[in-house]
Amino acid sequence: MDKENFRFYIKVRTALNIQAIAIHDELRTVFGDDAPSFLTVARWAQCFHEDREDIQDEERSGRSVAEIIPENIEQVRNIVVDDPYVTTEELQGQTGLSYGTVHRILSDHLKLRKVTARYVPKQLTDSQRSERVQICKENLSRFEDGSWRLCDVVTGDESWFFHQQTGQKASNAAWVTKEDPPPTIVRRDKFAPKTLFRIFFKSTGPILIHRVERGQTVDHQYYIENCLQPVIEEVTKRRPLSGTLAIKIHYDNGTSHAHQAVFDYLRSERVTIVPHLPNSPDLSSCDFWLFDLIKRNLSDQADSNSLHHAIIEFLYSLDKVEFKKNFINGFNECNCV
Questions:
Q1: CA of 82: how far to CAs of 79, 85, 86, 108, 148, in Å?
Q2: Domain 126-175+187-336 annotated CATH 3.40.50.170
């Protein structure tokens, strides 16, 4: 039933001296939520009481849709090109067009939508972007021509792990009835107990899971003695014939990682450093795969010792195929840069 039929019904019932509230109840009984609101019924009943005969809408004053003409569309386009952040209200003021006309031009004719800017850690310069592309191409070419192999790459990074787990939003979702209140979970305190771990692995599995003691300063010397040296020793133990020959190590450009003493030590051990993209600490294999996987599978731990054991147990329970897939995915990520 369209709105004109509703109005005709209201007109007839009003002529029979039926009150607006009764007319609304009748319409609600028959049409439910599709019936017009009480205010609409009352407004039209009042109009018919005042001897209105027409049930059609009156012509409204205002600008015509004919304002959507090529000249106005081009005017709006030029303003948006000059200032992509311009608001609809500002477009109204500059063009003299109505809000609806501006909105229709933007959405229907220019096919534009307004999207909130995405925050990024750092705005890269043109030279940094070029360096990104160059490093990715050089690394890819070495893998593609066979001079480098994914199975020879060791990668590692650091991350804080909380002792008590809150889970991710999706894991905290629960089914409730309409009468039940939504579930709640206490936000984790920023000073909650946590421990810093440095983890290194290859495509065949973990190499080192190092726990940093609370209050310990991690400088380049600590990094060499407690991370790189144990990694080199473990690689040598697993490869008694070739040792570190052809081994490549990949980590981000953190301060302790990029020290000259670190470079000198790795060269002395015949280990090649895989260049990392500038200002991209979140593009290491640990950050986009491993750390999140560990945290999603940890249970609450009493202290840093039990947390350390839990992480070791989980990593060594993972199928080696998962580690290999991570390196292949990282290879594909570089291919997309």
A1: 5, 9, 9, 20, 48
A2: no
